[in-house]
Each structure stands twice: as structure tokens, then as C-alpha cells.
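Predicting holo structure, 2-(butylsulfanyl)adenosine bound.
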Amino acid sequence: MPRAKASKPAARHAELVREIKAHDYRYYVLDDATISDREYDKLYRELRDLEEANPKLLTPDSPTQRVGDQPRSDLRTIKRETPMMSLDNTYNDEELAEFMRRVTDRLKSGAKVKYCVEPKLDGGSIEILYRDGRLAQGTTRGDGKSGEEITENLRTIRSLPLTIEHKGPLTLRAEVVIYRRDLEEINEIRTGRGDAPFANARNAASGSLRMLDPRQVAERRLRAMVYQVVEGPQIAKSHADSLAKLAKWGIPSHQKEKVCADLDAVRAAIDEIEKSRADYPYEIDGAVIKVNDFTQQDILGSTSKFPRWAIAFKFGAERAETKLHDIIVQVGRTGAITPVAVLEPVELAGTTVARASLHNEDVISNLDIRIGDTVAIEKAGEIIPQVVAVNKKVRTGKERKFELPSTCPICDSPVERREDGVASRCTNQRCPAIVRASLKYYAHRTAMDVDHLGSSLIEQLVAGGKVGDVADLYDLTLDDVLSLERMGKKSAQNVIDAIARSKERTLDRLLTGLGIEMVGHSACRQLAEVAETLPAMLAWSEEETIEKVDAISGFGPKMVESVRSLLHGDTSRRELLEKLVERDVGRPQPKAAVAAEGPLTGYTFCVTGVLTRKRDDVHQSIRDAGGTVHDKVKKGTSFLVAGEKVGKSKLDAAKKHGTVVVSEADLDEMVVNGVPNEEA
Ligand code: IVH
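Done. C-alpha cells:
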């Protein structure tokens, strides 16, 4: 009977997924593999082949579906003897003086201390090992104690010599950066072929380092700048001398170090770096102040997190002043109407800025922003600039107040200002701007992953009236697509095939693609695990919906209400769900039972800020250890894993909900050893 036959591959599939995940956990988390790489690859290939032969078996959580499609066996983890630490941060003069006082206090009285002041480069950190004069090994920072092996990728960095005349062991720490002009070019190429541009040079650099194909890495034009000699300090007596020695051997460093004898000189050196920030061809985000003498560094030692001989002085966001020519409005996926500043193009942090988000009417009225004003803009860590202030002194009186239009600029429907929020919305669900944005969201790689459905195609489909909601995609015929501009037969067929393939996505991705307010990707997965199928979800009564959703860990009242309103609120969204069911879109969600049992079972995490690894990878390591991931800090979130540049709102939310804030290093520890005993 065909049924019995089909269940065999399914059982083997489940077994392989379970086994490979367990090996991943042992290899990456416990660092205690029980099979060889070859045996691992055999299992991996069997799984891949099985899925190719039985596409129905493919689930998004299969090890073959990892983000970036990386067979994980390729980046080896390497433990290091001296962990890579981070630097203590300061933003003000008092703390800087306090640091210097602590240093002199700890050293024998009367000791003369010199400080080396240098830029803090904003890229990805690596460790490089030279043995017998050869570039022997490269690793990423990883969790500090161990990193991923990227030797072949480092070999593509042309500025890094493959051989040096010094034959002794040499362990170096460096920052890998991308020049701003190179990043602009790389981003142009990426957007040209429909890929998302990198948000900043740091992401581009750290992402590139971990790519599997060194030929692709070579295209990223990475540069390594050494900032520390870890093993081999016998080559010099001080930090500054060690950098000079490296320069002699052709090893690149930033070459901007300055040796200073007192606070005033240190302060002046920091100012100098900050003033010339825009002249650096790569991003810097502060200055690093280091005790110069290696013997003194050794005496000072380190705490569990930071060396006591160094501190980072972080710079604030870069600011620029420019003219506000106009305020236009954009309509987003939820209908939210966002005012956008049209600016006189201005250089900021190495890029030209011509637009900035103004978020909502309240921002405009609080800052009293008027068209024609001279405004200050800042980049808040990332690439999107913000208007942060108005220079009222230079007003001429000709400036005009801005008023949000009372009708949608795209479809002319009335705009509604909701009582509970600051956003104004277009009320017409069929507004072309909303439909376009919804389709883009639906087709995104992390949602329904509809290949070939790019922006211009979406625009044509909507403008031509061929698609009015995401379900209409499934009614498109080959002729419909063929009738569009510049569309060949093969491309049209590709589009149709990709749309058909998207029906096979599991429920969590379908829900993600629909964009349920307040319910992010991780929460959609939890919801999908409870519902299993869309028809089952639609069969829930209103009471059942509230009861089931309220029971999901981490779902607060607003999320419950959002799901309730999706299923039992205004009829148009329910009708869309029914349309999707009629078109057989979506596959059952595998039962939550596949979730790993591990040291983090029963705990929930929210991850935020800039981390050393991709956020998806951090999420996965939490799940692999049995933990649950929340998109936001909310009722029941046990831990907030805070990387660098954490937003204040996240920390405030943690305080409110009694969520414990931990570092990425703390998380790495917990993934292995579990949550420390609270009484301990
Ligand atoms: S010295 C902690 N010098 O900043 C060990 N670090 O927050 C001593 N960084 O992981 C680090 N420029 O990736 C040092 N001139 C510089 C640096 C620098 C950038 C990065 C580095 C480190 C991180 C610490």
C-alpha cells in the first residue's frame, strides 16, 4: 500500500533530523563530538538526498535549511588558550580619569605609566596565528573562548602576508574591516541583483568572514588591522613597539597609535581621533586607551571580562546639519503612514544622506520640525538616519508647518488616527501601497520565500489589477505573467513555479508572511505548533482562540488580542485566510515535540544588540539547548541577552518584567552548563 511505503522515508527523515541535531549540539555547544566529520557528512547527505526525493518531508527546521545554507560541518570550532575578551567602555572624562587612577593605584606607587591611544575599529574581530613564519590559522572571535576556523578566508585578505621573516610563534588579534567606498560598491551590486544591502560595514565584515566559499570572500575586499599581540610579546617591550615591529614585517595595523604620558595628552589624542573620524576610510566607533608597557599590563591583569590595562572611549553617533526641503509620506504594509524627511544631501559617517524617517506626527510636533528648517541628523548605530533636532536660531520665518494629509496619498481613502498609538493609517485594505508592501513581506526569504517575485514584478502585478492580496498570487496564470513588461516565457514559468512551491511552506512561515501585529517570527512558530494547520486554526471558536493563545509561553494580552482579531475581528482578514485554505497554501507544522530537551528547557530568551554571531545562529543555539526564543521582552521572558549597543527601551522592558540581563558570553556558558543556581 502506498501509504505504508511513504511512512518509511518519513520515519527515517525524523530520525536523521534528530540525530544530526544531537551531533550539532555535541560538536558546537559541548565541543565533544562522538562521530567523525566524514560520518557526519554521510548523515547530512543522506538527509539532503531524502529530502530531494521527497520534498514533502522538508521542514524549515531541518538541518539542511540553515540560514545561508551552510553545511555546518565546514566551519570548525577551535578552542583558544587565552580567551578573547572585550573592553570596558566609557563615554565620559570622569570615567576615563577614574580608569587612569585605578591603573596607577594598582601598580607600585611612583610607577610611571604611559598610555597608548588608538582608534577603536568597528568590524569583526579575529585571531591570527603565525607559526614558523607562515600564516597558520585564523579564527573568528566566537564566544571568546573558542572561535570558528576561517584560515582559508583570511588567506584571501591580500594585505595580510602569508609568510613573515619572524619564525617564532606569533598570535595576533585584529579587526577585519571593509572600506566605506568598497561597501558602497558591494551594496550597489547586491541591490542590483535583488539582494538586501548590508546595513553597515560591521555586519558586512563579520558576515563575510564566515562565508564558506573563499572565492566569494575575496570579492568582499576585506582588510585586517592588527591591534594586539597576544603571544610573542617578547618581540617588544611595549604595545606601541610591538605594532612598529609588525609594520616592519609587513603586517598591517591601523598605524594611528599615539603614546601619551598624562590625562591631558590622552584626552587630546582621543579628540584628535574623533575629529578625524570621517577621514578614516573605514568605520571607527571610539578610541582605545591601553597601558603601553607589557610588564605593567601583566601586573594589572584582567577581571573575568575585561583587561584592567585598557578601556574603550566610545564616540556618540555622528551628526550633521542640513536643510529639510520637504516632508513626504509613505504608506507601509499595515497601512501606517510615515512621514519622511527629504533633505539636502549631506555626508554623514561616510555616506550621503538624502532621506530620514520622521516616524510619526508626534516626533514632528515634539521637535517642532517645519519644512525649510535646518535640522540635525544622526545615525543611530545603524544605517537609517534620524532627525534629532532643529536649529531654530537660523529660522527665517518662511518655514512651513507640516500636516499629515487626511486622506491616503496613494488611494485617497480616509486616514484614521488610532487612539492607542501614534501611527495614522490608511483604512483601505486594498490600497495599492499596502498590497505591494504585504506581497513583499509575504514573499520574503524568512517568510514564504517566493523566489523570482521581486519589487518591480510586484508593482506591475498590483498596478495591472492582477493581484489584490497575497492569495491572488495562486490564481495567476502563465499568460497573466507573460503579459507583463519584459517577461520571457522562461522567466514567467519560473515565477509560476516559485509561487506553486511556496504552497509547501509550513504554517509558521505562512503566519509570518501574513504579518500578524505584535506576533514575530518566533511567536508565529509557537502559534503554529499549537494550531498545526490553518484550517484547524480557523475552526477555533473565539473563546478557544483566547484560551489556546493565552496559554502559549510569552504571549501577552496584546498578542492574544492580535490573534483573536485576526481570526474573529473584521471579516476581511478572515476571508483572506479562507482564500488561502481554498488554494491549499501551507503545510502542517511539525509537532513541538522535536524541540530539544536541554540545559535551557523551561527558560525563555530575547536576544538584542550587536552580537559576535548572527542573531539567527544565537537563536538556534538557544533552541538547540531546549530554550524558547521571544522576539520581545515580555511577561515571562527569563533572560535578555544583550549585545553591544542595546536600546534603552529593551533594558526598561527587562526591568519591568523582572527579566535578567545577561551577556552573550553568559549565554554561551548557560547553553553548556544550564542556568546558574539562583541561590548560589
Ligand atoms: S584591544 C579586550 N584595540 O573591540 C582585549 N580592541 O570591545 C583588547 N577593537 O574584541 C582589545 N579596535 O574586536 C583593541 N584598537 C583596538 C581595537 C579593538 C577594535 C575591538 C576588538 C575587541 C573589541 C573589544
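Residues 84-87, 118, 120-121, 125, 175, 227-228, 288, 307, 310, 312 surround 2-(butylsulfanyl)adenosine (CB under 6 Å).
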